[in-house]
């Protein structure tokens, strides 16, 4: 039976291939709720939950295409500091928000900063990485 289009509740732990944990609903002591296959989750996570049964635990390995995609170097841009007022106060590694053409904010990471320029990376921080998830389906609402 498919869970597609149904509201589901899962607990999960996400790790990188080297075993580093990057996220876990257990750490927040709160299951994750979403509508399965509605585009709210990365493709591979959604697909893993689609055919699960309540109480089942699965381990999935997702290549970047099934997760946050490959890194795109076109998403790394360098700007003159005067183009971004306040940018001179940023620090390398800091996550900041810029506004898109539609006015909606989107996160970028400061990857370089000197007295004239700032380099910003708009790739998702997990782009280009294979991800592993242990997922337990707790509940399905029809």
TrEMBL record:
Pfam families: FKBP_C. Its EC number is 5.2.1.8. Keywords: Chaperone, Cytoplasm, Isomerase, Rotamase. Residues 5-85 form the PPIase FKBP-type domain. It catalyses: [protein]-peptidylproline (omega=180) = [protein]-peptidylproline (omega=0). The keyword Transferase does not apply. InterPro entries: PPIase_dom_sf, PPIase_FKBP_dom. It is found in: Cytoplasm. Its main location: cytoplasm. GO terms for molecular function: isomerase activity. The keyword Isomerase applies. It comes from the Bacteria. Also involved in hydrogenase metallocenter assembly, probably by participating in the nickel insertion step. This function in hydrogenase biosynthesis requires chaperone activity and the presence of the metal-binding domain, but not PPIase activity. Belongs to the FKBP-type PPIase family. This is Peptidyl-prolyl cis-trans isomerase.
């Amino acid at each position: 039976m498919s869970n597609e289009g149904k509201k589901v509740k899962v607990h999960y732990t996400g790790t990188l291939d080297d075993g580093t944990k990057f996220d876990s609903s257990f750490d927040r002591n709160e299951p994750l709720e979403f509508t399965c296959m509605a585009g709210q989750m990365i493709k591979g996570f959604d697909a893993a939950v689609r055919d699960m049964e309540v109480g089942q635990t699965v381990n999935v390995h997702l290549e970047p295409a099934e997760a946050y995609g490959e890194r795109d170097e076109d998403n790394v841009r360098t700007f003159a500091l005067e183009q971004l007022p306040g940018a001179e106060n940023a620090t390398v590694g800091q996550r900041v928000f810029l506004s898109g053409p539609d006015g909606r904010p989107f996160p970028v990471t400061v990857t370089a900063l000197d007295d004239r320029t700032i380099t910003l990376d708009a790739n998702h921080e997990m782009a280009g990485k294979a991800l592993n998830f242990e997922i337990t389906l707790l509940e399905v609402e029809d």
